[in-house]
Write a structure and sequence with these properties.
The chain has 219 residues and is mainly alpha-helical. It contains eleven helices and two strands, in the order αβααβαααααααα. Helix 1 crosses helix 2 (31-45) and helix 5 runs antiparallel to helix 6 (97-109). The chain is globular, with a radius of gyration of 20 Å. The two termini are 40 Å apart.
């Protein structure tokens, strides 16, 4: 028997933390302060549920049941983020430019291979571009995504993103992927920064900014 465990998306993490605190008799302050507290907590763990669980347990040891204030959590919760390249596409395609650069900085600091980070994003660009071509032949989106072997959280992300992007836009980002790949492998490209990580920052900055400003084109 298989048990399906869906990942907790970033926007749902503050509520997940609040639920875990409630299980041990703790809660944040009501209103805006509480929301800021949960957001701070979520920012520190950056989607790492194991780290979040451990920090929640730590709070049970440090504080009695009752209300936890922002100062309590700031004093107890370290920056325990563990970055993963799979976090990057969500931030890019939802136009979260500042978070994209933060994730890239974290991946570089943790010793992640630039080539792997590039591959994760390039696979998405290729799939989104191919999906646009297939949609223009009149095929329904669910059929297109199945054909491209896109499912789960990635399928939901593509469903949100595709109406916002044009084929020329994706074609340009696909060309940019080739430039970034060359730079990672030691080539030089006019108009691009040199070095693997500066190239990744440049490429992702263009894409996330485009996603943040582009309005839906499909109905």
């Amino acid at each position: 028997m298989a048990i399906r465990i869906d990942p907790i998306e970033r926007h749902a993490l503050p509520n997940w933390i609040a639920q875990r605190l409630a299980l041990q008799g703790q809660h944040v302050a009501a209103g805006e302060e509480g929301q800021r507290t949960l957001q701070f907590f979520a920012d520190q763990v950056e989607g790492n549920l194991l780290a979040a669980h451990q920090e929640v347990q730590k709070l049970a040891l440090l504080h009695p049941a009752g209300t936890l204030h922002l100062a309590d959590i700031e004093a107890a919760v370290l920056n325990v983020a563990r970055y993963d390249p799979s976090q990057l596409p969500v931030a890019v395609w939802t136009g979260q430019s500042a978070r994209v650069q933060k994730i890239l900085d974290g991946l570089e600091a943790e010793g992640e291979a630039a080539v792997r980070v590039h591959w994760v994003l390039a696979e998405d660009v290729r799939a989104l571009h191919r999906a646009h071509i297939l949609l223009d032949t009149g095929r329904p989106l669910p059929m297109v995504l199945r054909e491209l072997r896109v499912w789960g959280p990635r399928e939901k992300l593509f469903e949100r993103v595709l109406p916002r992007l044009s084929r020329p836009q994706l074609a340009q980002w696909l060309q940019d992927a080739h430039h970034a790949d060359g730079i990672i492998k030691g080539l030089q490209t006019p108009g691009w920064p040199q070095g693997a990580w500066p190239a990744l920052h440049h490429w992702t900055r263009q894409m996330s900014a485009g996603c943040a400003t582009t309005k839906p084109k499909r109905t």
